[in-house]
Amino acid sequence: MAEPSHPGGRRPGWQALDRGQRARPWEWVAEQAIRVVSVTAIVLVFLIFVFVMREALPVLLGRVNSAAAQERRALPVEQMDRLDPEELRQYLELSRKEFAEMDRDTLRLLMEVKLEAAEEVPEDKDAPLNTAAWRYLLGPHQWTGYDRPAYIWQPVSSIHKYNIVPLIVGSLKTSVVALLFAVPLALAAALYVSQLAPPRLKEWVKPGIELLAGIPSVVLGFFGLVVLATFLQQVCGYASRLNAFVAGIALGLACIPVIFSIAEDALTSVPRSFSEAALALGSSRWQAAWQVVLPAAVPGVFAAIVLGFGRAVGETMVVLMASGNASLLTWSVFDSTRTMTATIAAELAETVFGGHHYRILFLLGALLFAVTFLSNLLGELVIQRLKRRLEGGR
Amino acid sequence: MTLHGRWEVGGGSRRGAAWSVLFTGATGLATALILAMLAVILVNVAWHGWPALSWRFVTAGTEADMFEVGKAGVFPMIFGTTARVILMTLFVIPVGVTTAIYLHEYAHTTSVLTRVIRTAVANLAGVPSIVFGLFGLGFFIHFLGDRLDLVLHPDNPKPIWGKPALLWASLTLAVMTLPVVIVATEEALRGLSPGLREASLALGATKLQTIWQIVLPNALPGILTGGILAVSRAAGEVAPLLFTGAAYYMAELPRSLTDQFMDLGYHVFVLSTQSPNLEQTRPILYGTVLVLLLLTFALNATAILVRARMRRRQRAAG
Fold it and tell me: Min CA distance, B189 vs chain A (Å)?
């Protein structure tokens, strides 16, 4: 390693060298290496953004055409041998794995199916529409067979209907139910544990809630599907066994630990002097908790709710299993519901790599990423400011 | 603290005391309700799952029908879950610990880089698990995998790397659990007394020597906690595996990094949504859930115990 020549004083980056008795280049190398590795987290967030957006971008830019009518250009079966394998694979819309596993006869059969499908392309007024355009993604459209404009998500049909509004509403419905269920419980518990409970009890409650946090979401989904759905249907007596309400309650169980731990942390970080002052002035413990400590920690409580929302919107397995997965656009929480996450989970495996369905699912992913990224950023900012303020006011 | 027992009467008026009891009771009830729901889940799973557990159940299953009570076993799933989790640990621990060391030992707390790294870590922790799955598919499988196939096997039409695999699932999980390891390690580093480092430096050790020989060994329990928490988080996670490696059924155990695998959590999903007859396969389902819960809870409990011991020791020391 070449010794750098900085005769009069060192550059700031070399300060590490001064910490030993003599110059140690390896120390510097190690520090730089550690710094490089520590940037991984930044790189990963960036890569996640880039690679989810990369697949979604053509939809955003309007470069994807999902019109059913274009499938008319089907090739006669005899042409199969003239195409090279890659072209054939793309034409048949197979993944590489599927393609590699198929023998000639299967491929031939698929060609025939394709041809038939092309002949069957409906004489539908909607067939030439590019359903992946923004208009149809977000706005209602009067599809053939419907008596009025509707928001429809129906990717696997002769006309690919890609309206994402029912999915967004579905995600919001389940998340709101989850928060309505989880926020009061988690906040009350946080207030109790941080301000009112005897310290001995605290040592039992906190690991208990950590245990709840440790239950995998697939188990919560299973519980919602197998136990909760039947139980709630018997109690409430609604028609559809799996719906946004059941999924929301199960989702709430996943959110409680998040909201609890953040709110409890915020409440605990309020200096003891606050409540001690209130108590010295003659207030009771609940008055001190409710009127002094809670108001001081309100930003933390807000952050807890925002982060809980982020968790609820992004949760997949619970809603996939317990929400019923019918993409209806209704405001009733007792209807079967399909969320954005469940849609990605259920449909991505069956899409063609790079096709319109695939890209629109990535668009949903990008939307999810954006929503949770913003709610996290907001939550983190609020918590940091609160901490600074409370520490400054001590 | 001597006042502790008498705080309740501080309100003075009788109305205040009534409110106090009501308020404390209501919040206490909420706490109890949360714990009760936890208990209901655990008891329900244990009650129905216990009869299904047998030595056969956890050691067999590859060739038998997975929906047939008495023949089904979950060994391939336990194997797959264990394999992906161990592999994940190999990736996530070095990177996570190094990042934590940088953040706590080297970086200036107020520098822009530090703040950006912290924000990135916090955001990484909040990214939905299904988005990690999309990332794994887009980046690991279709970007890295397809390129590896082009370079290593240009003549082979069958993708080897560019398809869901154990390796890609583990890497996706490593990305997902990175914040867990970073946060836990940093907490461990923060808990060490500065005197320890100062003493080492004063004796003439370099910073690197201090970190390697003094800081890391002392922070080991905390790092282990982080690792265990990451493992328990990853063990039950299903959404990121849906497109990156979990298989619905495989006749054999995975043999290489590029094979797919069966997974406990994914199997719970399969059993509860694709079963031909849910009533009949219920014992298998409950048994699988119980195995999964036992696995994650054993890991979690270890982490909680290690951390509690560490905190006690620190409190005694500081």
Answer: 15
Which residues fall within 8 angstroms of residue B79, CB to CB, at 6 or more apart?
B253, B254, B261, B262
Q: CB distance A314–B243 less than 8 Å?
A: no
Q: Hey, where are the domains in chain B?
A: 4-48, 55-317
Q: What fold is seen in the domain B55-317?
A: MetI-like fold (1.10.3720)
Reported pTM: 0.85
Indicate the residue type of B187: E
- Contact by Cβ (8 Å): B227, A40: no
> How deeply is B283 buried, as exposed, middle or buried, from its count of CB atoms within 10 A (0-12, 13-18, 19+)?
middle
Write down the CATH superfamily of domain A165-392: MetI-like (1.10.3720.10)
Across B31-38, average pLDDT: 95
AA letter at A15: Q
- Percentage of chain B exceeding pLDDT 70: 92
In angstroms, rounded to a whole number, what is the distance separating the alpha carbons of residues A222 and A343? Answer: 18
From the list B29, B233, B304, which residue is nearest A207 (CB)? Answer: B304
Q: Confirm or reject contact between A19 and chain B (CB < 8 A).
A: yes
Domain spans, chain A: 16-61, 63-157, 165-392
Buried b (16+ CB within 10 A) or exposed e, B79-115: bbbebbbebbbebbbebbbbbbbbbbbbbeeeeeebe
